[in-house]
Amino acid sequence: MLRQRMAAILSAVAFTATLAVAAPSAIAAPTASEAASSPTTVASCNYTTWTAGKSYVTGDIVKYTNGNFYRATHDNPGYDPVISTWFWEPYNCGPTAPSNFIVSEAQFNQMFPNRNRFYTYQGLVNALSAYPGFSKTGSDTIKKREAAAFLANVSHETGGLVHIVEQDTSNYPHYCDYNRPYGCPAGQAAYYGRGPIQLSWNFNYKAAGDALGIDLLHNPNLVQTDPAVAWKTGLWYWNTQRGPGTMTPHDAIVNDRGFGETIRSINGEVECYGRNPQQVQSRIDTFRRFTQILGTSTGGNLSC
Fold this sequence. Notes:
The chain has 304 residues and is mainly alpha-helical.
């Protein structure tokens, strides 16, 4: 059972929830040989627009209504690319600028060998512009340590980047606070946990959306259909929210306060202070593994 933490300091109530994939899309990331044989860039982007109900075969590339391109990973009768992620994967059409993220795509795939295709490396890279200080503050050791800390917590929250949404649907109606002046325009049960750090509650969707310039209050489903939006909400929490802790996870790492402080900020009310040492140890073990992959040190104060 994965523990879902409340996504902001505004809520003092912690729910425990398991998470699950929206559609059967949890498949292994491409191997190195598969990646080498799969085209990721092309000379032009003159692909046809996706049409609902039109049959597509594996390898077909379409332009979706949002302007992004998708490639069919399985034959399908015209399923929506941003919903049926088992049948489609994002496709980089045209030359792609090299990533300046301190984690390479090969390292990312090593960290998440069984990740859901929804959680793309490119989606994370595209989201980084929202918080330019993330993994770019301090020494190379600190930069790598922050990336490892973020991805370790994300891995714990999503079962290794497999799970997109909260499984326990009975919790869904609980995440609507009608005392807010804006209410729950997308519906009472629309603000359940989504994304790499499980954004939940209407007020958190509004706060994250306002910060990112995306109307998530009216369109919460974007967090489970657009990889860049999903990653941005995770980075929003990491860089701006203290949760039940005393500082943001970003500040905890760049100020050398330790990985344990990031756990406290994300799920401290449920896991820290001896409440769930197994979950804390799981996060620490993943953090250690990721720092080894990135060739950096863990620093002190690993536990909360």
